[in-house]
Amino acid sequence: MKRIFALMLWVATAALWGCAGNLANSGWITLIDNGSGLENFARVGDANWQQQDGAVMADKGGKEASYLVSRQSYTDFVIYAEFWVSDDANSGIFVRLSDRQKITATNAYEVNIFDKRPDPSYGTGAIVNFAKVAPMPKAGGKWNTFEVTAKGPLLSVKMNGVETAKVSDRSFFHGPFALQYGTGVVKFRNVQIKPI
After folding, report:
1. Interatomic CA distance for residues 196 and 190, integer angstroms
2. How far is 89 from 73, CA to CA, in rounded Å?
3. Distances from the Cα of 189 to the Cαs of 9, 16, 31, 63, 151, in angstroms?
4. What are phi and psi of 8, to 5 degrees?
5. Which of 56, 85, 97, 149 has the largest count of CB atoms under 10 Å?
6. Pairwise CA distance, residues 16 & 93, whole Å
7. How many CA atoms lie within 13 Å of 13's alpha carbon, on the beta-carbon side?
8. CATH classification number, 28-195, choose in 2.60.120.560, 3.30.420.40, 1.10.600.10, 3.30.70.20
9. Where are the domains of the chain?
10. 25-45 pLDDT, tens digit each
């Protein structure tokens, strides 16, 4: 009986080491985890980004949007992020920024989080000015996931596992990415990027 138990323990330990090795070699880089990770971003604007309840969040800012801008730049990648926003929030993930200080939907690709956008075709789940969403999913009041893939001119967005937007465009090819605070309450957790 002792030998069977020892063998089972050895198999379980080997399996755990194998899983840990696979995660380490998976290529994913964790930037925000359990509320920590603000040091991986430069702040642009005056939102009150802080670590709280296992997430990075903001609920106050100035007249203009604020951002957490990744310190590294990327070309081809997949971003995975979990986010929670209030119903009145305006947020998003901007990718391939052309300018780290002046971030707009005209000099980067903006994956929108904006349930109450006056034109919902570019609301939550859309790539503003490039790929509309129909019907627009609602993000407010619950945890959601985004998976944003950029490979060459191809960009796609999945929200909660469902593709919401896709485009082939050659406007922006390289740059950092940014998490936006516009209005409302915005939280991000488990933010990872995998260069591809």
Report:
1. 19
2. 27
3. 34, 25, 9, 25, 24
4. -65, -40
5. 85
6. 34
7. 6
8. 2.60.120.560
9. 28-195
10. 699 999 999 989 999 999 999
- Using one digit for the tens of pLDDT, what is the confidence trace for 115-169? 999 999 999 999 999 999 999 999 999 999 999 999 999 999 999 999 999 999 9
pLDDT at 14: 42
Residue 23 in this model has a pLDDT that exceeds 50: no
Specify the pTM: 0.87
- Of residues 15 and 50, the one with the higher pLDDT is 50
